[in-house]
UniProtKB/TrEMBL annotation:
Gene3D superfamilies given in the database record: Winged helix-like DNA-binding domain superfamily/Winged helix DNA-binding domain
Source organism superkingdom: Archaea
Keyword Coiled coil: yes
Coiled coil region boundaries: 85-112
UniProt protein name: Molybdenum transport protein ModA-like protein
Keywords recorded for this protein, A-Z: Coiled coil
Length: 112
C-alpha cells in the first residue's frame, strides 16, 4: 500500500502545459538540439513531439526553431523554459520526499 501523486504544470484555466513526459522531451531537445533527435531519444513519434512542443509554445513560448537543410536546422530552448523545468523537478522532488514520509507510516501500519 502506498500513496502516489502526479505533478504537472497547467495554465490558470486548468489546461495542462507540461508533465513528466513533456519535461523529458524538452530536456532531450536541449541535449540533442532537435525535435527529431529528442523524439527518438524518448521513443515518441516526431509528430507527437512536434505537437507537444507547439502546445508548450502556445502557452509559454520559448522553444525556437532554426530552419535549414541537413545539419543546419535545429531547436533551441529558452532560459525561461529551462527554469520552468528546474522548478518542476524541484517540486517533484519535494512531493516525493513528503510521500516517502507518509508511505513509511502506511508501511508501519500494515506491518503491525
Amino acid at each position: 500500500m502506498r500513496l502516489n501523486f502526479k505533478v504537472w504544470i497547467e495554465d490558470e484555466n486548468g489546461k495542462p502545459i507540461m508533465g513528466k513526459g513533456g519535461v523529458e522531451l524538452v530536456k532531450s531537445i536541449i541535449e540533442t538540439g532537435s525535435i527529431a533527435g529528442a523524439a527518438d531519444k524518448v521513443n515518441v513519434s516526431y509528430k507527437f513531439a512536434w505537437e507537444y512542443v507547439r502546445r508548450i509554445n502556445s502557452f509559454v513560448g520559448g522553444i525556437e526553431f532554426r530552419k535549414g537543410g541537413k545539419n543546419a536546422g535545429g531547436t533551441e530552448v529558452s532560459e525561461r523554459v529551462k527554469k520552468m523545468i528546474e522548478i518542476y523537478e524541484e517540486a517533484v522532488k519535494e512531493v516525493n520526499q513528503i510521500l516517502e514520509k507518509y508511505n513509511k507510516k502506511l508501511n508501519e501500519l500494515s506491518s503491525s
